[in-house]
Amino acid sequence: MFSFFKRKKSDPDQKPDNDVDIQPAEEIAGETGVPQEPAPEALAEAFGQALDGDAAVDTGAGEDVPDEAVDTAIAVAAGEPVAESALPEADAPVIEEPQPVVAPAVNAAPQQETAGHTQEKPGGSWLARLRKGLARTGQSIGGLFVGVKVDESLFEELETALLMADAGVEATESLLAALRARVKKDRLEDASQVREALRDILAQHLAPLEKPFPLDAAKPLIVMIAGVNGAGKTTSIGKLAHAFQAQGASVLLAAGDTFRAAAREQLIEWGARNDVTVIAQEGADPAAVAFDAVNAGRARGAHVVMVDTAGRLPTQLHLMEELKKIRRVIGKAQGDAPHEVLLVIDGNTGQNVLSQIRAFDAAIQLTGLVVTKLDGTAKGGTLAAVAAGSQGVRPVPVYWIGVGEGMHDLQPFVAREFAQALIGD
Ligand SMILES: Nc1nc2c(ncn2[C@@H]2O[C@H](COP(=O)(O)OP(=O)(O)OP(=O)(O)O)[C@@H](O)[C@H]2O)c(=O)[nH]1
């Protein structure tokens, strides 16, 4: 039913090169045998049965599968009894057999760099790029401390700068209250001391968001990734695949954006660059792709399975329902999965991030955030708003921050470094 890819295959009819891994999922599942789970082939059949006759809703994200049909299909594939009324008559199949998706040519030589903090590359270290990116915010905040007296007008200007940086009312008030108290207690008279104090206070404020990613919490660790269109999901998955592999973990990717061919190809390309298997199927139900990927990950003994999903706005309720379904179906493939549910947010978004987090959290119970594009934003204060629980948002941990488009431009979030980049030295 599904195809597996590692490298470019120039002619679908030709026998693949030795380093090309294109196998039917059922063969892979048979390698180690995961007997309790329905074989993908059985699932395909079951989906065919279960879907036929059901009015599939066009979600705008590809051929959607009604939820009951997924349940029925899984039950059928697993050999469980299913109410007859749940099984539509066998007629024309709804899911077409996938055409193999061919990964584009990638000449990328294996990259030597790791996801370490100190690594240098053209354009400077990641911290330098973060600082540069946050410069507009940093200048507006850090610049206030130059050649001024510590008085009420400094606090007023700080308040404006923090609000302009999208720190939000709650965080701004809380940070300034703490700063005033520190200035009083430590009798700070020099503006540069006040700036240092603000940096400390901001680092403390952001610290609850800092959490190391628990890569070894399960095997395979099933990670579902969601976010609005263009937030940087696929790029982040590619970077993460690289970082996880650098830590010795084997990775499998699922192209859950079954609607947009370009999105699938983008993931396949990232997979090829990292020599990682990608499961993709054009026009399939994304929940079925996710289900199959989890089973394949189990069968192959992968350390991590990352499931990409199509971008969607929280206001597109039918697409949010689809996301819930993907989460549920992953849980049917493996009871305790997904272990991590990540929301990728664009660091340029500002306060709108709060409603994104709230909506995605309500739908799929987030476990972490990835904040991208921090290499070019004036909205660096948004994470302070998240940490403050502004507008009723749950302070979801930030696992990583994106500071560029390259393979290594994803770094663990470290509150102190972030505060330093934001406020300046
Ligand atoms: N500067 C910069 N660009 C980034 C970063 N992360 C992603 N991008 C760019 O953002 C654009 C969108 O990234 P994608 O990974 O395609 O985003 P997506 O969320 O998968 O997009 P959809 O599938 O359309 O929803 C691409 O041009 C990326 O190169 C980052 O940290 N910094």
From TrEMBL:
Residues 1-64 are annotated as: Disordered. GO terms for cellular component: cytoplasm; plasma membrane. Its main location: membrane. Residues 35-46 have a biased composition (Low complexity). GO terms for molecular function: GTP binding; GTPase activity; signal recognition particle binding. SMART domains: AAA (SM00382), SRP54 (SM00962), SRP54_N (SM00963). It is an enzyme of class 3 (hydrolase). Residues 219-397 form the AAA+ ATPase domain. Its EC number is 3.6.5.4. HAMAP family: FtsY (MF_00920). Part of the signal recognition particle protein translocation system, which is composed of SRP and FtsY. SRP is a ribonucleoprotein composed of Ffh and a 4.5S RNA molecule. This is Signal recognition particle receptor FtsY. The lineage of its organism: Bacteria, Pseudomonadati, Pseudomonadota, Betaproteobacteria, Burkholderiales.
